[in-house]
Amino acid sequence: MRTPIVAGNWKMNKTISEARELVSEFVPLVKDMNAVEIVLCPPSPALLPVAALLEGTDIELGAQNMHWESGGAYTGELAPVMVKEFANFVILGHSERRAYFGETDETVNKKVKAAQNEGLMPIICVGESLEENQAGKTEDIVSGQIKAGLKDVGANLVIAYEPIWAIGTGLAATSEMANDTIKIIRSNLKELFGQEDAEKIRILYGGSVKGSNAAEYFSQSDIDGALVGGASLKADAFAEIVVAAQNEAVK
Ligand code: PGA
Questions:
Q1: Which residues is 227 bridged to in the sheet?
Q2: Beta-strand (E) ranges in 57-120?
Q3: What share of the chain is helix, strand, coil (3-state, %, to 5)?
Q4: Would you say residue 170 has pLDDT above 90?
């Protein structure tokens, strides 16, 4: 049994005071959700204040990105050791970083290695575009991203399958479609890490997940939680998703 993860990717949203408000509202709503690992990924300035608010809870923190070098002349970047001061998780290779900031499978691979060296759990995002999906290339694209991004890394990681056409669009992939692709990802992981380790890796679905569709995803055989964007910005909407994961986990 894999413990589900529900992670909230706030992207470039929430000032520190807004972050405090959201977390203060959210924490009491999920206090009994002990079968789910909950991870909040605020923007960097909110990491420290959110960490303080989460003290004494089981809710974990993640960063949304970081650099692979351990420090030095990289203006605007965060080193793994700086992330580790607050967080246990880091999102890597999100499609927005790939599309707008030149992230490639090679840079993702360097970052995964750096995260694991620092004892951070990477949440590695993969997914195909609408054109790739319509051309029947989903398997090729996603398997390519997995094999290149995870070259020579350890099995201590989480994958998020996020079809790009489903992110922030309201066009969620059907739960069967998502599960089929996630099964392909798990077979890629078996090739890389062997059956036993691959069975332990959590693979999340991301893309327009909300309270009303979350249970459907979580009921699928290979979907181990969700990476949530828009719906993680409201305490009650995000809590609804956590509750759906909890209900499935204790079934
Ligand atoms: P969304 O974003 O839930 O707003 O579609 C998901 C993500 O980008 O991680």
A1: 7, 206
A2: 60-63, 89-92
A3: 50, 15, 35
A4: no
| Residues 36, 162: Cα–Cα separation, whole Å | 20
Q: Which residues make Cβ contacts (< 8 Å) with residue 135, sequence separation at least 6? A: none
Ligand 1, residues 11, 94, 228: which to mutate, most atoms within 8 A of Cβ? Answer: 228
Helix (H, G, I), strand (E, B) or coil at 206: strand
Average pLDDT for residues 215-241, to the nearest whole number?
98
Q: Helix axis angle, 211-218 relative to 235-249, nearest 10°? A: 20
Asked if residue 39 has pLDDT above 90, the reply is: yes
227 lines ligand 1 (CB under 6 A): yes
Q: Which of the four CATH numbers 1.20.1250.20, 3.20.20.70, 3.30.70.1350, 3.40.50.150 does domain 5-249 have?
A: 3.20.20.70
In three-state secondary structure terms, 114 is helix
Given CA atoms 48, 53, 56, 62 in this order, what sign does their dihedral have?
negative
What is the domain partition of the chain in residue ranges? 5-249
CA-based Rg of the chain, rounded to a whole angstrom? 17
Phi, psi of 227 (to 5 degrees): -105, 120
Q: Say if ligand 1 is within 6 A of residue 206 CB.
A: yes
Instruction: Provide the whole-model pTM.
Output: 0.98
